[in-house]
Amino acid sequence: MYVLGISGSPRKDGNTDTLLDKALEGARARGAETEKIVLNNLKVAPCQECEKVNDDGTCRIEDDFQALYGKIMKADAIILAAPIFFGSLSAQTKIMIDRFQCYWRYRYMLKKPVPGKMRPGALILTEASQRESFLDNAKALAKNFFATINVEYKEELFCPGLEGKEDILKHSDFLQRAFELGRRLR
User: Fold this and answer.
1) For 29-44, how does the pLDDT look when each residue is reduced to its tens digit (9 = 90+)?
2) Which CATH number goes with the domain that contains 83?
3) What is the pTM of this model?
4) d(C-alpha 105, C-alpha 56), whole Å
5) Helix (H) or strand (E) run with residue 122 in it
6) What is the pLDDT of residue 128?
7) Is 137 helix (H, G, I), strand (E, B) or coil?
8) Radius of gyration of the chain (CA)
9) Do the Cβ atoms of 172 and 180 come closer than 8 Å?
10) For the segment 11-23, what is each residue's pLDDT rounded down to a tens digit?
11) Are 90 and 9 in contact (CB under 8 A)?
């Protein structure tokens, strides 16, 4: 099983990355092959809402998105991890999701068959505040993204109160829950 972890955090080795690493460790503990992609390290342009689009679900813009798209479509399971900014997903995460607009069109407007079977997915969110309502928008966006790419929203881990870069290290319960999330993802 190939589990793809996608980090939408701009902060290297911060709370979101640490939780994603722990979830991928859990997946490896049960024998999965894992890979982590840090969106902030990629050159991915925002969706340009092109007038002329490909009818095969791929995006016309040539950048690092093409390789990311291939890995997402190949993955047997996906773990999306992102911090909450202004009550939503980080810009890096949202740009990636928006670039799947071509695939959304392929699937829902052109009614093309979706290759492969339904795959499991998980969402890990971190935030500085304790405002549960801030998670609702991010969760809805992730669920829509997962549905578009044939991923079943199976697991979630929400970690509030993490302001500083290494605050997660003070929360062994969150780290253990991330590890278990990775182990359960099938």
Assistant:
1) 999 999 999 999 999 9
2) 3.40.50.360
3) 0.95
4) 9
5) strand 119-126
6) 92
7) helix
8) 16
9) no
10) 999 999 999 999 9
11) yes
Measuring CA to CA, which residue among 90, 74, 94, 125 is closest to residue 10?
90
Q: Which residue has the tokens 């991330």?
A: 178
Return the pLDDT at 151: 97
Number of domains in the chain: 1
In this predicted structure, the answer to whether residue 133 has a pLDDT above a threshold of 90 is no
Q: 3-state class of 156 per DSSP?
A: strand
Strand-strand pairing, 77-85 and 88-89: antiparallel
- What is the C-alpha to C-alpha distance for residues 115 and 117, in angstroms, rounded to an integer? 7
54 lies in which domain range?
Answer: 2-184
Quote the DSSP letter at residue 59.
-
Token code pair at residue 70: 């291939």
* Residue whose C-alpha is closest to residue 36's, from 22, 15, 20: 20
